[in-house]
């Protein structure tokens, strides 16, 4: 049997992806204690270049937040964001009037479609200990027929997301059927909504010193396994270190031998959309002419404006996990 590993590459920030994905980012930040106002109990002025502070050698980063970590209001158009928060919390607000606080393994699925503004802030809710944040954000492209669909906001609560427990592994099934286990339905206009596209987003954890077999898929998909934490692994005769991406032959089962630490992976898989991609920051279209039209539309409409009091909007400190939908429906969690 031939080696299922087609290519390996070091993980940069953001992670490189293959069609239908645009990119993925992984944040692991050990934020300090909170200051009582959901910001850090630490100076932001010591060696921090706000807006460009992605240095992975630092214990924590502020991104674009002036007082609270995160990304104040910014636009998106023409693709989807899948945001997985395993540790810490994210406060979402958007131009549709939707809002939420999610964490503890929750996933937010947002279809930008014809255009939406949103903010993603990371409130530091603990004032007596560190506030660790572990977050993935995955950008999934939309085909030409879906570039201008209505924006859509959906919360996938951790309690509803299936986790498959095998002898030596746990697999969190965010998108795409794993063996016979079906995921929570994605956003309705997503490329992932059609099972024929075989879109899969699986967060896989394999015990130290054990083996795991990743089941095969069809030959029509791109499949990349991101080894983001752990000790070395072996696939066949190939030894792979953490912080590497692994492009796999989708038609083969992949047998992984894990070293002396638990291995943590993110798998991204899907049938390629196979269309031209034109990108300008948070806008993704098929041509540069379409990008120019979208930019002009944003200048004129602000994608509906910003209904919140601050561009870095956060919710009450004691709010808990919740989702407020554009139609006014409120979903509260413990």
From TrEMBL:
It comes from [Muricauda] lutisoli. Belongs to the pirin family. Residues 202-304 form the Pirin C-terminal domain. InterPro entries: Pirin (IPR012093), Pirin_C_dom (IPR008778), Pirin_N_dom (IPR003829), RmlC-like_jellyroll (IPR014710), RmlC_Cupin_sf (IPR011051). CDD domains: cupin_pirin_C, cupin_pirin_N. This is Pirin family protein. It comes from the Bacteria. Residues 61-140 form the Pirin N-terminal domain.
